[in-house]
């Protein structure tokens, strides 16, 4: 679980960030920026569905940004074929930097 100062957290899987209060647009931009920071070639940036997808060296990563009914935002980074075991952690850390944490 990732820890963000000043935010509420729930038991969520690794590669997931939950923030309250949050802005969907800011979280979406941070997810996209974090993937770009790790040199993923973005293939999808669909703000309406909250999906950002990219590829790096044969590995694909998808970020899902969802606003919950309580106003919190859940950002989850997933890869079913990551060849680099630290890739999702690096993307999550970059996301934190984009969010100013």
Summarize the structure.
The chain has 101 residues and is α+β, with helices and mostly antiparallel strands. The protein has helices at 24-37, 87-98; strands at 16-19, 41-46, 51-56, 59-67, 73-78.
Question: On the 0-100 scale, what is the average pLDDT?
Answer: 82
CATH architecture: 2-Layer Sandwich
SS element count, helices: 2
What distance separates the N and C termini? 15 Å
From the alpha carbons, calculate the radius of gyration and give it in angstroms. Answer: 12 Å
Question: How many separate structural domains?
Answer: 1
Structural class: alpha+beta
**How many strands?**
5
CATH fold assignment: TATA-Binding Protein
Anisotropy-based shape: globular
CATH superfamily: Kinase associated domain 1, KA1
Helix-strand pattern, N to C?
A: EHEEEEH
Strand order of the largest sheet: 1-5-4-3-2
Poorly predicted sequence stretches spanning 5 or more consecutive residues: 1-12
User: Level of helix content?
Assistant: 25-40%
Please write the CATH class name: Alpha Beta
Strand content: 25-35%
Biggest sheet features? 5 strands, antiparallel
Architecture overview:
The chain starts with 15 loop residues before the first strand and ends with a helix. With 101 residues, the protein is of the alpha+beta class. The protein is built from two helices and five strands. Helix 1 (24-37) crosses helix 2. It has a single domain (16-98), classed as Kinase associated domain 1, KA1 (TATA-Binding Protein, 2-Layer Sandwich). It is globular.
């Amino acid at each position: 679980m990732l820890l963000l100062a000043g935010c509420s957290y729930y038991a969520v899987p690794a590669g997931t960030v939950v923030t309250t209060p949050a802005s969907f647009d800011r979280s979406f931009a941070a997810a996209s920026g974090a993937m770009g920071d790790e040199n993923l070639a973005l293939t999808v940036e669909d703000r309406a569905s909250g999906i950002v997808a990219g590829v790096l060296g044969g590995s694909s990563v998808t970020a899902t940004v969802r606003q919950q009914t309580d106003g919190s935002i859940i950002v989850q980074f997933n890869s079913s074929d990551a060849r680099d075991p630290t890739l999702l952690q690096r993307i999550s850390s970059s996301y934190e930097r984009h969010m100013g944490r």
